Amino acid sequence: VSKRLLSLKEIPAQTKDGVRIKLLGNIEFPEEVSQCIDRGADGVGLYRTEFLYLNRRDEPSEEVHYEAYCRVVGAFPNSPVIIRTMDLGADKMPSALTFGAEPASNPVLSLRSLRLSLKNLPLFKTQLRAILRAATVGDVRIMFPLVSTLMELRQAKMILADVVEDLEEQGVEFKRDVPVGMMVEVPSAVMMAEEFAQEVDFFSIGTNDLIQYTLAADRDDPNVSELYRAADPSILRMIQHVIDVGNRHEISVTVCGEMSTDPLFSPLLIGMGLRQLSVTSHMIPRLKELIGNFTLEEAEEIASHVRNLELARTVENYLRGEMMKFA
Ligand code: PEP
Ligand code: MG
């Protein structure tokens, strides 16, 4: 990143006509928080805590969780830090935990992520305790991954309430009213967004998984990469629906999948109504510069043109053409 771009650190991301866009960073390890701060992030939009399991055969203790979270939150005390509960299984640390279960023939459709947490309550509660304790240090928010049904969300929230009660009884210092949000990354959650919006404080759209589950195309399989495209109109319509529902219910909506880091999609996503993106931190200065080069009206025109396109390829080509104007 050039000096010129880094000098953008102090100025907030905003469109040419002054519409504020929040750019948050995605992190996997606590050390990465300094890169977010150095590049002028508005907070951490996705902390992938499953990386605590990397190179580890045993379960991290509550203290290990707590220390990792405090390092992030303590470094960034006045900005939101969205801690996502463990998203283990499938593509991430598949062998870290098996819990004696038979290997799944379809790991991506099996016991992973929140499903795994809900089946292993001691592990889930350990993490939630650590998050609530670390929340005393700053502006922590909890996010549940791979929520597929309302029942799962309610179960997860119930367990969180149990943990609150335990901490209270034990006289442990913690924060009570931590905002609770969910990843929207399974098509069922998109279809039920209206109901979900009444039970969470925020949505974060995980396009990496949403594309995989919507187009039935493995996110890591080059044989189907032709199908796996963020620009597919089915994906864009889903994102639009979630943004609209979120705006109507006045809860924040972020996109935190790789799509949000790709400059090609910045004008489109903002034109669709998104005001917050969680991205790979090294791209923050470049995205800030790009966003400053178009107006909200221009972004909205792009979004409205794209609504009529039928193919991923047509969308991509159109966006590439539009980008030339803002580069
Ligand atoms: C996603 O699915 O888009 C996402 C951000 O989460 P992950 O890549 O960790 O599955
Ligand atoms: Mg995901």
From TrEMBL:
BP terms from Gene Ontology: phosphoenolpyruvate-dependent sugar phosphotransferase system
Localisation per UniProt entry: Cytoplasm
Catalytically driven reaction(s): L-histidyl-[protein] + phosphoenolpyruvate = N(pros)-phospho-L-histidyl-[protein] + pyruvate
Catalytic residue positions: 256 (proton donor)
Residues annotated as binding Mg(2+): 185, 209
Keyword terms: Cytoplasm, Kinase, Magnesium, Metal-binding, Phosphotransferase system, Pyruvate, Sugar transport, Transferase, Transport
Parts forming coiled coils: none
GO molecular function: kinase activity; metal ion binding; phosphoenolpyruvate-protein phosphotransferase activity
EC number(s) from the headed UniProt entry: 2.7.3.9
Signal sequence region: none
Entry's Gene Ontology cellular component terms: cytoplasm
Cofactor(s) this protein requires: Mg(2+)
Domain PEP-utilising enzyme C-terminal: 6-292
Residues that, per the record, bind phosphoenolpyruvate: 48, 84, 208-209, 219
Similarity annotation: Belongs to the PEP-utilizing enzyme family.
Chain's role: General (non sugar-specific) component of the phosphoenolpyruvate-dependent sugar phosphotransferase system (sugar PTS). This major carbohydrate active-transport system catalyzes the phosphorylation of incoming sugar substrates concomitantly with their translocation across the cell membrane. Enzyme I transfers the phosphoryl group from phosphoenolpyruvate (PEP) to the phosphoryl carrier protein (HPr).
Name listed for the protein in its UniProt record: Phosphoenolpyruvate-protein phosphotransferase
Organism, as annotated: Polystyrenella longa
Organism ancestry: Bacteria, Pseudomonadati, Planctomycetota, Planctomycetia, Planctomycetales
